[in-house]
TrEMBL record:
Catalyzes the synthesis of activated sulfate. GO terms for biological process: cysteine biosynthetic process; sulfate assimilation. Transmembrane segments: none annotated. This is Adenylyl-sulfate kinase. GO terms for molecular function: adenylylsulfate kinase activity; ATP binding. Pathway: Sulfur metabolism; hydrogen sulfide biosynthesis; sulfite from sulfate: step 2/3. Its EC number is 2.7.1.25. It comes from Mycena alexandri. It catalyses: adenosine 5'-phosphosulfate + ATP = 3'-phosphoadenylyl sulfate + ADP + H(+). SUPFAM superfamilies: P-loop containing nucleoside triphosphate hydrolases (SSF52540). Keywords: Amino-acid biosynthesis, ATP-binding, Cysteine biosynthesis, Kinase, Nucleotide-binding, Transferase. CDD domains: APSK. The keyword Transcription does not apply. Pfam families: APS_kinase.
Amino acid sequence: MSTNITFHPGSVDGEERIALTGQRGVTIWLTGLSASGKSTIACALEQHLLHLHRFVYRLDGDNIRFGLNKDLGFDEKSRNENIRRISEVSKLFTDSSCITITAFISPYRADRDLARELHQKALLPFLEVFVDAPLAVLEERDPKGLYKKARAGEIKGKPILQGQTLIKCPADFTGISAPYEAPETPEIHIKTDETSVEGSVRIITDYLAKNGYVAS
Ligand SMILES: Nc1ncnc2c1ncn2[C@@H]1O[C@H](COP(=O)(O)OS(=O)(=O)O)[C@@H](OP(=O)(O)O)[C@H]1O
Ligand SMILES: Nc1ncnc2c1ncn2[C@@H]1O[C@H](COP(=O)(O)OP(=O)(O)O)[C@@H](O)[C@H]1O
């Protein structure tokens, strides 16, 4: 929408920033169904890397929806916009040399591809991590009782109105009544029904070390 705007480059380029800050930024994009373990792994990974004195920050779907994205719901367009904003925010964090861990369901492949593309265009590393477990396991975990609510029809989608009349209010809980498009070629695929939290942190940090992002 903005016109008459001009991009203003900084006086320090990407490589010089990395040399000066002593750290290369990377976005670690966790995607998966609710209760798959995104937040748990993100917290443990953040703690592990902070204790190694790395500059790290975590962006978590639930938390961001209390602030920056409090105007968004869970219909498809809102989820698209949610992920678009977080793609931009994570790009900025990573550009600042931060190890940026995002934990969003991010159910649509096209949205995650857009996040990757934004980073690639800015020459910033982006790692997609599929946090995966069978739906039956997730429903068993159900740490927030959301699957139970969804099965009971207590989670409603965006109301569709015709004038003042409610036409329908579709349920839209991911994995039950809203889609999740699993990653086809993620950099990392973790099956959390087979891997402990510590094991997941190790898998990610090994990948970071092998690819020259951080020392293990
Ligand atoms: N309808 C519906 N569908 C999915 N999730 C729901 C819904 N309503 C509320 N919640 C809670 O919101 C968290 C997901 O937010 P995200 O921003 O990650 O979602 S998305 O990427 O835009 O799809 C999600 O967090 P996680 O369980 O950590 O994934 C839920 O706590
Ligand atoms: N191997 C595992 N990895 C991650 N979480 C696990 C694992 N095993 C059990 N859990 C539990 O599953 C739940 C995952 O919830 P959460 O991390 O909030 O997932 P998400 O952010 O994907 O919704 C937590 O209660 C966590 O303790």
